[in-house]
Design a protein that fits this description.
- By secondary structure, this protein is of the alpha/beta class.
- The protein has 2 domains: about 120 residues, NAD(P)-binding Rossmann-like Domain (Rossmann fold), CATH 3.40.50; about 110 residues, Dihydrodipicolinate Reductase, domain 2.
- The protein contains 7 helices and 9 strands.
- The strands form 2 sheets. Strands 5-6-4-7-8 form a 5-stranded mixed sheet. The protein has a 4-stranded parallel sheet with strand order 1-2-3-9, sandwiched between helices.
- α3 packs parallel to α4 and α5 runs parallel beside α6.
- The radius of gyration is 19 Å and the shape is elongated.
- The two termini are about 25 Å apart.
């Protein structure tokens, strides 16, 4: 486990320790040597660290033939391409990068992608605790990418918006074609609402993570699946 002392990392440690088919061989955090992963013969590493450190972690894991399940965010296309290139040197290694490990969140993204083909307007509101370091969230960005592609595949026109005078950020930050509005407030965990609008109707698809324990079934599914799926897998839905 990398990021073992963080909120998600400590929850993963608990889940793996309580599982019947895994053995936890290393709990590492900032300042700890990655060499312990090799000396302790780790087969799969779960990474919940930071965008600043995750790429070096993955480089180490791939070069040492260790599979990885990654919940850290910040993966743009350049980073994806870099991981894909690194995996050509060790094609038996499996890497899962998942924007979200909650089963309900994965389904929410799938439903949003399907609905995007049928509504003129679509926006995302994502809400997280104030300790989250990135905005928009990886889940929101991935949802927007899926929705944008679905709209393009269906030849949807540009969304109607007559706004001409707006303060910076008032209309959110666009990922693809979709505006995303990020809220950070004490008391929240992880929440996302996708709002669709058409003539005479609206549709809201919402997912709420109320406790980090809700991510653990997805993390354990990723650990079990990644060893049998070499190469890069983007999204837990590929294993569901």
């Amino acid at each position: 486990m990398l990021g073992a002392r963080g909120r998600m990392g400590s929850e993963v440690v608990k889940a793996v320790t309580n599982s019947s088919d895994f053995e936890l061989v290393a709990q590492l955090d900032l300042g700890d040597s990655l060499d312990q992963l090799v000396s302790n013969k780790a087969q799969v590493v779960v990474d919940f660290t930071t965008p600043d450190s995750v790429m070096k972690n993955l480089e180490f894991l791939i070069s040492n033939n260790i599979h990885a399940v990654v919940g850290t965010t910040g993966f743009d296309q350049d980073r994806i391409d870099s991981i894909t290139a690194a995996l050509t040197k060790n094609p038996t290694v499996g890497i899962l990068i998942a924007p979200n490990f909650a089963i309900g969140a994965v389904l929410m993204m799938e439903f949003a992608e399907k609905a995007a083909r049928y509504f003129e307007s679509a926006e995302i509101i994502e809400m997280h605790h104030p300790a989250k370091v990135d905005a928009p969230s990886g889940t929101a960005a991935h949802t927007a990418e899926l929705m944008t592609q679905a709209r393009k595949d269906s030849s949807m026109p540009a969304m109607p918006d007559a706004t001409k005078d707006a303060r910076e950020g008032a209309r959110g930050n666009k990922v693809g074609d979709i505006p995303i509005h990020s809220i950070r407030a004490q008391g929240l965990v992880a929440h996302q609402e996708v709002l669709f609008g058409g003539v005479g109707e609206t549709l809201t698809i919402r997912h709420d993570s109320l406790d980090r324990a809700g991510f653990m079934p997805g993390v354990l599914l990723g650990i079990r699946s990644v060893v049998n799926n070499p190469g890069l897998t983007h999204g837990l839905d590929k294993f569901m």
